[in-house]
Amino acid sequence: MVTVQTCRSVLEAEIVKSHLEGSGVPAFVPDEFAAQNSWAALDGVRVQVNEEDEIRALEVLKDAVEGLDESSAR
User: Fold this and answer.
1) Which of 48, 53, 67, 73 has the most CB atoms in a 10 Å sphere around its CB?
2) Residues sharing a CB contact under 8 Å with residue 20, sequence separation 6 or more, in sequence order
3) Under a CB-based contact definition with an 8 Å cutoff, are residues 21 and 33 in contact?
4) What is this structure's pTM?
5) Which CATH number among 3.30.70, 3.40.50, 2.60.40, 1.10.287 corresponds to the domain 2-72?
6) Residue 14 confidence (pLDDT)
């Protein structure tokens, strides 16, 4: 597994995970339960994918950020 994004909260990580999975990229939030029950979220909440999905996941996340930038410029 490789980390493709580190988020500030479990909620943000779950949104990223959902977006990846909606684009056909299986994703996992390994810190989900630890972050809900401790200070683990201070270091961020990781979103991970299988190594073979890393490039596609990064493309999906990049496209999402570019889409947000375009919609906020309007």
Assistant:
1) 48
2) 4, 26, 27, 47, 49, 57, 60, 61
3) no
4) 0.81
5) 3.30.70
6) 94
